[in-house]
């Protein structure tokens, strides 16, 4: 049994720990799918997957983080095709899969960067991780343009605007995690379970 004031090994490994380690995958899934639904309606084709990747990687081991981000991507695609009536054609479907692959690559990059950086939940560490994840995400999307078109979406102004929007989403998601951690709706006893 650990003293109540001693951080669990889980809090040492991960930057965000709003809930007990055993609840983190479900919390991460709920947080990112709800956020993805909101972003999908508000931003349509500019869902902040790099921000989602950083939050998932900061909260979970790689495999569950990848699953959570996949869930968010599925929500995004379901809303896009089912509610926003994206065209059901080869190019749009292919871009959907490219977005999913880019989000997963960004998650893997975020997880790798977080493992390499010094421990701690500092905003600087999350910012560095976000820059790496966003770069990987955008490069993965750019790599698909010779096959799927869309080079015009990669101007400095557009990439910067989407990056700043994603950074704001990251700040909001981290703030939501911190609020949950402070409010502690599941109780301290469960945190170290």
Overall description:
The chain has 193 residues and is an all-alpha fold. Helices cover 74% and strands 0% of the residues. The protein is built from eight helices and no strands. It has helices spanning 9-13, 24-43, 49-59, 62-82, 90-116, 123-148, 156-183, 188-191. The radius of gyration is 17 Å and the shape is globular.
Which key features would you list for this structure?
mainly alpha, 8 helices, globular, single chain, about 190 residues
User: Which outline best applies?
Assistant: globular
Which stretches are low in confidence, meaning pLDDT under 50 for 5 or more residues running? 1-13
What is the percentage of strand-forming residues? under 5%
What's the SSE pattern?
Answer: HHHHHHHH
**Major β-sheet profile:** none
Number of strands: 0
Sheet/helix structural class? mainly alpha
Share in helix = over 70%
In round numbers, the mean pLDDT is 86
Whole-number radius of gyration? Answer: 17 Å
Distance between the termini: 10 Å
Number of H/I helices:
8
């Amino acid at each position: 049994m650990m003293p109540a004031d001693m951080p669990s090994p889980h809090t040492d490994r991960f930057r965000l720990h709003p809930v007990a380690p055993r609840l983190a995958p479900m919390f991460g899934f709920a947080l990112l799918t709800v956020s993805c639904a909101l972003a999908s309606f508000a931003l349509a084709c500019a869902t902040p997957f790099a921000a989602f990747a950083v939050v998932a990687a900061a909260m979970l081991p790689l495999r569950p983080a990848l699953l959570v981000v996949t869930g968010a991507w599925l929500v995004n695609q379901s809303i896009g095709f089912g509610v926003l009536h994206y065209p059901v054609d080869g190019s749009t479907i292919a871009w959907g899969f490219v977005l999913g692959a880019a989000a997963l690559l960004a998650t893997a990059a975020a997880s790798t960067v977080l493992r390499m950086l010094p421990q701690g939940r500092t905003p600087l560490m999350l910012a560095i991780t976000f820059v790496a994840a966003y770069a990987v995400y955008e490069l993965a999307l750019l790599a698909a343009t010779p096959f799927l078109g869309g080079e015009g979406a990669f101007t400095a102004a557009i990439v910067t605007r989407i990056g700043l929007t994603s950074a704001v989403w990251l700040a909001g998601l981290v703030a939501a995690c911190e609020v949950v951690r402070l409010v502690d709706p599941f109780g301290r006893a469960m945190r170290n379970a």
